[in-house]
Specification:
Length: about 375
């Protein structure tokens, strides 16, 4: 059976670039009859990073340190782009205007004005599919929770908590990198880098914050600069945003909490979402990736039920249903959701990747959070594009 090919280029060949490339390499893992991605182009200013790709991908026909050369090539249909936030506006717009589909990294612009400029490029190029990376909702437990939410098993929402916790920055001897510097990462700090992971499911459920109160922390003032001295850390390490949102199901208001922490003791890379309601509650965490927890509210005492879940996600795979699911599987499932949209404008995939509209909502929330922290007040979130 002949299957269409989608020729991918990767801009930014670091950690996530390799994950995407690996997902492409093992595409036969998925039991899907849709298009097959092929890695045909790579780009990074550090040419040493080319070596791994050229060793493992004989399909690569373009290797360059200038992204403009890659996106100008007729051998590229779509691009995955993982670069520092201050480069998003220029590079993303150039990719879109070059008529390439784009799967970009969050937050889609270093700030709200940059995000709006990317928006304008998207509106001027409606034939291009442009989406944002977010892997964790593709864990089977997360998809089970999404189905649980869509079935409205919660009754009236009391509270929703979504978070992403790291602990690598607990090592105070860790040298500073671009994510700790405002000129590269932006004023959002950990919110810009981690926030979309926490917001993907709530935004898709229609749970968009009306107001936000923000508790932002700069815990480490200085880090080694890699040259024998130290450099100032100017970005936020941890953030807790306490929001009020309205559930479109019943027009009732509830608490919505987003946590993004780079200094969370004991958390290597933990993503979670918890939903609490008057009739039922459910939660999932990558800390316990085979478990889905739920409870039904009956009387004054309730108890959590733990269901052990297997490996199967939105796109079936060759892995037996009894086995475990991991981050690399989530990356491949996310890429599969993106490829599904390239196949047809209206995909039948149950949970698609982050839309440009959702990245804009994220910027609105984070901008309001900066103001809320600066003033010490709860701030209304403005979604007006003017």
């Amino acid at each position: 059976m002949r299957r269409d090919k989608i020729r991918f280029g990767i801009i930014g060949l670091g950690l996530m670039g390799r994950e995407i490339a690996s997902s492409i390499a093992r595409w036969c893992h998925l039991l899907d009859d849709g298009p097959v991605p092929i890695l045909t182009g790579i780009c990074d200013v550090d040419e040493k990073k080319w070596e791994w790709y050229l060793e493992h991908f004989p399909t690569v026909v373009i290797q360059t340190n200038d992204y403009r050369e890659l996106i100008a090539s007729p051998d590229i249909d779509a691009v995955y782009c993982a670069i520092p936030h201050h480069l998003h506006e220029k590079v993303y717009i150039d990719i879109i205007q070059a008529k390439k589909h784009l799967l970009g990294e969050k937050p889609f612009g270093i700030d709200k004005p940059a995000n709006l400029k990317i928006w304008k490029a998207i509106e001027s190029n409606p034939d291009q599919i442009v989406r944002c990376s977010s892997e964790f909702p593709y864990f089977p437990g997360a998809l089970k929770l999404i189905r649980w939410i869509n079935e409205k098993r919660y009754g009236v929402l009391i509270e929703v908590r979504a978070g992403f916790h790291h602990s690598s920055d607990m090592d105070l001897s860790k040298p500073i990198n671009w994510k700790r510097q405002i000129e590269f990462n932006g004023e959002y700090g950990c919110m810009g880098d981690l926030g979309m992971h926490t917001q993907h499911i709530p935004f898709r459920m229609g749970w968009r914050p009306k107001t936000v109160f923000a508790d932002l922390q700069k815990i480490v003032d200085r880090r080694p600069d890699g040259k024998g001295g130290t450099a100032a850390c100017k970005t936020w390490d941890n953030a807790v945003l306490t929001c009020r949102a309205v559930d479109p199901f019943n027009s009732r208001e509830f608490s919505l909490v987003f946590e993004t922490k780079r200094m969370a003791p004991g958390a290597t890379n933990t993503w979670f979402i918890e939903v609490y309601g008057t009739e039922g509650s459910a939660k999932f965490s990558t800390h316990d990736p085979k478990a889905f927890y739920s409870l039904k509210s009956t009387g004054k005492e309730q108890g959590w039920t733990r269901v052990d879940i297997g490996s199967q996600s939105a796109i079936p795979s060759i892995t037996g249903g009894i086995f475990e699911f991991g981050f690399s599987d989530a990356v491949q499932q996310m890429l599969g959701a993106f490829v599904a949209e390239l196949k047809q404008k209206k995909s039948d995939h149950p949970f698609l990747t982050v839309t440009p509209a959702e990245t804009y909502s994220s910027h609105c929330v984070m901008s309001a959070a900066l103001l809320a922290h600066a003033t010490g007040k709860r701030v209304e979130v403005c979604y007006n594009k003017k």
